[in-house]
UniProtKB/TrEMBL annotation:
Protein name: Caspase-14
Family statement: Belongs to the peptidase C14A family.
Highest taxon in the source lineage: Eukaryota
Keywords: Cytoplasm, Differentiation, Hydrolase, Nucleus, Protease, Thiol protease, Zymogen
Assembly, per entry: Heterodimer of a large and a small subunit, both processed from the precursor; the mature active form is a p17/p10 dimer and the intermediate form a p20/p8 dimer.
A single GO cellular-component term on record: cytosol
Domain Caspase family p20 intervals: 29-136
Gene that encodes it: CASP14
Record SMART domains: CASc (SM00115)
GO molecular function: cysteine-type endopeptidase activity
Amino acid sequence: MNNAVPLKEEVYDMSGARLALTLCVTKAREGSEADLDALERMFQKLGFESTLKRDPTAQQFQEELDKFQQAMDARTDPISCSFVVLMAHGSEGYLKGEDEKMAKLDDLFEVLNNKNCQALKAKPKVYIVQACRGEQRDPGEIVGGSEIRMIIKDSPQTIPTYTDALHVYSTVEVSLESQGYISYRHDKEGSCFIQTLVEVFTERGHILELLTEVTRRMAEAELVQEGEARKVNPEIQSTLRKRLYLQ
């Protein structure tokens, strides 16, 4: 006999404003305009007010996030969620600005957390990062417990500082001992990651289901770099407390 209690589905309220900020370095990143066009179509279809800043310096990455946060906190109408898209050359934990200097991703993520952005407190904050995380290349592979219980005191009046965030990287980090992987981008068609994400995000389903589909499609894709077959897959880090539906 199955006595399992069905999970209660809680969803984020998406009736308020939806805001998006895209910061994209196009310098020496052929194909990025195709990604920008695809993202703009997606944001329009999903009802987002979107802002684009091309070729930010490392300092401007931070400044534009700060301006985005300040503008949201100054609004009087309710805000439902935010998307921040960051596209540049990079290494693990960093993005390279147009000026070749590095911006720290953790500093950018801090700007919109539950402590620093009142308008987005307990609201979903989605970060899309299209950037390399190292120099490794993945050729792909041929596919051929005790239970620990913890009792956590329920505290409905407060939430952790870093909840309600979703970080989606175009490629994986792997480990502290080794470099992360390259993120591929076609010089005319754009990146496999952004193009696949845009295609899937306009479908119905909650966002983690959609990201699973993005991962599946990217895992099946055949990429060729310098005459060699390569594989790439996104990495998803979520502290969402509820289901997030974009449609």
